[in-house]
Amino acid sequence: MTNDVRARIVMPILIPVLILLSMAAFIGSIVALLLFNTKSGATMLAAVAAAGILFTASLAAGHDRLDTPRRAVVAFAAALPLLAGAAVGFGLIGGVDDADRMINVEPLLVMPDGAPVIVAENSQEFCLGDDGSCEPIDRWEVTLPPESEALAFVFDNRQVGIQHNVQILDLAGSVEAPEPGSEAYTTSTLITGPAQDPWVDPEGLAWTELPENWYFQCVVHPVMNGVGTIVSE
Fold first, then answer.
1. Model confidence at 176, in pLDDT bands (50, 70, 90)?
2. CA–CA separation, 152 vs 36, rounded Å?
3. How many CB atoms lie within 10 A of CB 217?
4. What is the pLDDT of residues 99-132, one digit of tens each?
């Protein structure tokens, strides 16, 4: 193949292909660096990669023409942090547990507008707070705006040093003599007071998917319980 044919036919095809492959490798390295590492590891490697890119830019800007050794230093400074991060992300070096990878981090919690609030002030009963007061309840009537059906609530544990949570189950027995059933629809995180826990059901369950009456309790203190229902505005 003559140089003229290579210049007119091969190179116009080969160069764009090499550029696309380089872009895919670069993007894949970034994805592996950020998503498949731990949060702290991804932050550290991203900072090192950014420093390498800045060093590369400053080195290249200071020389009109780079000789071969300087080209090697530039390529090394730009590529090594990304390659190292990608290697860690893909498990080629280091040891990152799958559960700790950034790709498994829970998304930012978004509470629906009008999510109900339920409060624990003691270890005997739940209450509904309003302006600092708390009215004890054994009947939790949840009123939601039409556009907010997600099973979400704010649990306010006001008891200092004591763990509470809210579990919603199916209702066994009657409304007058409620008992917890075997199916748990959602169970919020145990928190030690004083603290608040904005809870959105991780399975995407909606309030409207619950039966007409359901049972709620604290797992740690089952005496804290009652019957819940959805009421219209």
1. very high
2. 30
3. 21
4. 555 555 555 567 777 789 999 999 999 999 766 7
Q: What is the pLDDT of residue 149?
A: 81
Higher pLDDT, 200 or 107: 200
| Entry field: residues in the chain | 233
Joined together, the tokens standing for residue 4 give 């003229």
Closest to 39 measured CA to CA, from 87, 79, 108, 96: 96
In whole angstroms, what is the distance from residue 29 CA to residue 31 CA? Answer: 5
